[in-house]
Amino acid sequence: xxxxxxxxxxxxxxxxxxxxxxxxxxxxxxxxxxxxxxxxxxxxxxxxxxxxxxxxxxxxxxxxxxxxxxxxxxxxxxxxxxxxxxxxxxxxxxxxxxxxxxxxxxxxxxxxxxxxxxxxxxxxxxxxxxxxxxxxxxxxxxxxxxxxxxxxxxxxxxxxxxxxxxxxxxxxxxxxxxxxxxxxxxxxxxxxxxxxxxxxxxxxxxxxxxxxxxxxxxxxxxxxxxxxxxxxxxxxxxxxxxxxxxxxxxxxxxxxxxxxxxxxxxxxxxxxxxxxxxxxxxxxxxxxxxxxxxxxxxxxxxxxxxxxxxxxxxxxxxxxxxxxxxxxxxxxxxxxxxxxxx
Length: 342
Hints:
Keywords: Signal, Transport
Protein name: C4-dicarboxylate ABC transporter
CATH superfamily of the largest domain: Bacterial extracellular solute-binding protein, family 7
Family: Belongs to the bacterial solute-binding protein 7 family.
Number of domains: 2
Strand content: 15-25%
Strand order of the largest sheet: 7-6-8-5-9-11
Organism: Ramlibacter humi
CATH class of the largest domain: Alpha Beta
InterPro entries: DctP_fam, TAT_signal, TRAP_DctP_sf
C-alpha cells in the first residue's frame, strides 16, 4: 500500500505556542520526563512509545530523557485519567488513545465513532489530510498539550466466551468489558449487550473469572495478552472502531524546551509513529491466521453482515457525532466518502 505523508508539520511558531494558563519560561530540563502508555512494549502501541523515547534520548544526547510508564501506572491503571493527570503535572508525555480521555476532552475522540473509518484506505486518507489533522491538532493544543504525531491503535474486534457473534442480536445478554467511554457502552447496550466499564488491568481477571463474558480490542492485543487463555473462544473481526495513537507533550513541558529540541522531539515522534503504524499493519494482516491457530473460532463478516452492523449502530453514531464535534466529523466523512469512490 502506498502511504501518504501521515502527519502535518505544524508551523514552527505555532508549534511552540502554549496556553497562557500553562506557559512558563524556558529553564532547566528535568532529569526525567514521564510518559504514560496503557500497554508495555510487547504490544505495538507500547512499542511505539518505546521507540519514541529511545529516539529522543539518542538525538538529544540525553538532554531529554523520556521514561515510559506502561500499564497506565502513573494513574494507578486508570487510563481514562491520563489527560487530566497530564494537566496536573503528573504526566509529561502522552502516547495514547484519545478515546481513553473522552471523559476529559470529548472532542478528541472524534475518530472512534462506529464504522467511521471502515478500512485502512479510509484511515490513511484521513490522517494524511493536512488541513484536517491541523484542525485536530489545534483541538489538542486548546486542551493543553502539544501534538506531535499520530500512529494507530488498531481496529477493535470483539471476542467472547459464549457463542459466535454473527449479527447484532447475538450480543443480547452478553456482558462486555469496554474502556471508560460512554459511547462504546452505548454501542453495546443498543444491541442488547451489558457493557461494563473497567481498565485493562481489571479486565483480565474479570474475563478469567467469568465476571464478564466478552471484550473488544485489536487482535494483536488478543494475541499478546493471550486472551484465549481467559476463556475467550469466539472472535468477530468487524473492524468497528480504530482510534489514533496520539503522541503529545504537556504544554508547559513543551514550552520549556528550546526550539531546536522541540524540532528534534517532533521529528522523533513522527519517525516513531511511522514505525508503529508499519508494525500494526503487519500484525493486522496476520491476526486471523494467528488467532485461528490457537483454536479460536474467528468470524469475518460478509459485506451484507457488515451493513447490518452499521445499521444497528446508526442511531448511536448520530447521537455521538452531535455531541463530540459534528462539524469536524462531517469533514472526516467527506474525506472517507472520496475513498469509497476511488
